[in-house]
From TrEMBL:
Pfam families: Phosphonate-bd
Start and end residues of each Solute-binding protein family 3/N-terminal domain: 31-252
InterPro entries according to UniProt: ABC_SsuA_sub-bd (IPR010067), Solute-binding_3/MltF_N (IPR001638)
Keyword Signal: yes
First and last residue of the signal peptide: 1-25
Protein name: Sulfonate ABC transporter substrate-binding protein
Domain of life of the organism encoding this protein: Bacteria
Annotated family: Belongs to the bacterial solute-binding protein SsuA/TauA family.
Organism: Uliginosibacterium silvisoli
Length: 328
């Protein structure tokens, strides 16, 4: 065999190996590590019903994708884990990705849920002298830093024509914030469901404002940039399961309430309250309208000096390819 022919054969072999490697990279991952929070309804339904495990179960054990679940107290903690490679995928509210991007974290927006403006609120004790948002001037407001509640507070102050410096933000994780709120260490609490519903159900709070008219309170799904680039079709599969989970919750309310009551360790009436204010909608990749809305969140934090640099949200938005969207 001539040297030229051998070189040609070697080139064909190397090309085949490269294509094979690319195909493997684009296939289902060996493991999918999912971050979730108490209150991420759809992910919790998938976890409790084992639906992702069923979806990714291969014909042989070696072909299956192992699904691992990791719970976090709030979105900022979840995205920190995503950025350092401890998880591959997770869900947060609108603000955590803005803070993560401003800090140079390695992640991308991959999907979103329909807006849920009624599922978060600024609360005060039922007997508080605070009667309006304007009365928050000079007061201590508890919130998770870098969370959707943080942005809700920004917007609430804007409506009241107050500056950020007019209040004392007290940055606490949800459980610690509730404790501080109930013992009177703070004057108000900005929070999301199910924590909002749980304390509301106690009858000891008043709602100063919900997110409605202030923020769309979007839920976003995020992934590491490497995972999104290699496993786009897997993300589309996950979106389909999340959409089916939403339909399950809406169409099987009694069963869903029982499932979530057990999973969250909350009273049934709290879960019923949470689900009553959730609209139905599919989980989809990011579109132009959602991108514009999220850029406004980022701009608001930058203008107040709450993030160190301006960010362009579009720079970290995953765009599925035709191959990602094609059914396998």
């Amino acid at each position: 065999m001539s040297i030229i022919r051998r070189i040609q054969n070697l080139a064909v072999l190397l090309t085949g190996l490269l294509l094979s490697a690319q195909s493997m990279a684009q296939g289902a991952p060996a493991e999918l590590r999912v971050g979730y929070q108490k209150g991420t309804i759809n992910l919790t339904v998938l976890k409790e019903r084992g639906l992702l495990e069923q979806r990714f179960k291969g014909a042989a054990a070696s072909a299956a994708t192992r699904v691992t679940w990791v719970e976090f107290a709030a979105g900022p903690q979840l995205l920190e884990a995503l950025a350092v490679g401890s998880i591959d995928f997770g869900a947060t509210g609108d603000s955590p990705p803005v803070f993560a991007q401003a800090a140079g974290k390695n992640l991308v927006y991959v999907g979103y849920e329909v807006p849920k403006p009624d599922t978060s609120a600024v609360l005060v004790p039922a007997d508080s002298p605070i009667k309006s948002l304007e009365d928050l001037k000079g007061k201590k407001i508890a919130m998770q830093k870098g969370s959707s509640a943080h942005f809700l507070t920004v917007q609430a102050l804007k409506r009241a024509k107050l500056a950020w410096s007019d209040i004392q933000p007290i940055y606490l994780a949800p459980a610690d914030a509730r404790a501080a709120f109930e013992r009177g260490s703070v004057d108000a609490w900005s929070i999301w469901d199910p924590y909002y519903a749980a304390v509301e159900e106690s009858g000891k709070v008043r709602v100063l404002a919900t997110s409605r008219g202030l923020s769309n309170n979007n839920t976003f799904y995020l992934a590491s940039s490497a995972f999104a680039a290699r496993h786009g079709s897997t993300l589309i599969d996950v979106f389909e399961e999340l959409t089916q989970a939403e339909k399950y919750v809406q169409n099987n309310r009694v069963e869903a309430v029982q499932l979530l009551t057990k999973a969250f360790g909350l009273e049934q009436k709290v879960i019923e309250r949470v689900l009553a204010r959730r609209p139905l909608g599919a989980v989809k990749p990011i579109n132009a309208d959602v991108l514009l809305d999220q850029q406004q969140v980022a701009d608001a934090f930058f203008q107040l000096g709450l993030i160190p640099a301006a960010v362009k949200v579009a720079d970290i938005v995953w765009k599925p390819t035709a191959n990602d969207l094609a059914r396998r």
